[in-house]
Structures are given as C-alpha cells and as structure tokens.
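Quick one: structure tokens for this chain, please?
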Amino acid sequence: MAKQSIQVSDLGEAIREQLEFLHGDTVEEINAAGERAIKKLVSLTRKTAPKRKSGGDYAKSITHTTETNSTTGDKVFTWGAKAPHHRLTHLLVRGHATLDGGRTRADPFLEKALETVLPEYEKEVEEALKND
C-alpha cells in the first residue's frame, strides 16, 4: 500500500474508506465460506437422511435458501426441506409418538452433519478475519 498524505481534517474520511474496503473483502470471503458450508450440509444430510423403502422423497426435498442484506452485503444461508416434507424434519430429528402409543427413535442425521460442517466453516471464517 502506497503512503498517502492527507490533512488532519480528512483523516476520519480516509479511515472510513479503508475500513469499508477491508469490510467488503472480509464479507465476500465469509459469504463464500458460508456458501461452501451450506452446500456441504445439504449434500451430507441428503446422503444420511432417513429413507423409506418406497423412495427418498424427504432426502430429495432437502435444500437451502440464500438471502442477501441489501445494505451490508451479508448473506444468510438457511437449510430446510421443501413442502410437503418440510414438516418432517422436527419429527425425524426428535422422534415422535406413534398411533399405538409408542415412540419412534430420533435420528440425529442433521446434528451429525453439522458436527462435520461447522468446524470447517468456523476455521474458514477465522482465517478470513485474520487475513484482513
């Protein structure tokens, strides 16, 4: 970075510009890490989600959405399942009552996938913050 001469009265503006520049790069790196993580989470949960003998309709319905904050450029990634299977996630992960009064076993497929994906994502975010 080349040295610049600025007036004391312009110091605040110069600092703001540099912080915005650094913030933009950091946000882009974190957004890219988030996108890689959510895609890996969707892939892992599709592979490990419970499947009925009749097919894997629930697993096929697993997807993600991305929303972007228009002001900051931050992205929010949300994991989920498409309708009509979206209601099953809670029942599969936590277990549920059966018609004969028993309970089904919980299937921690989502937690296991998160245990794999989150440490990698956290490491990428830490690296992005250290680099900037």
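The mean pLDDT is 87.
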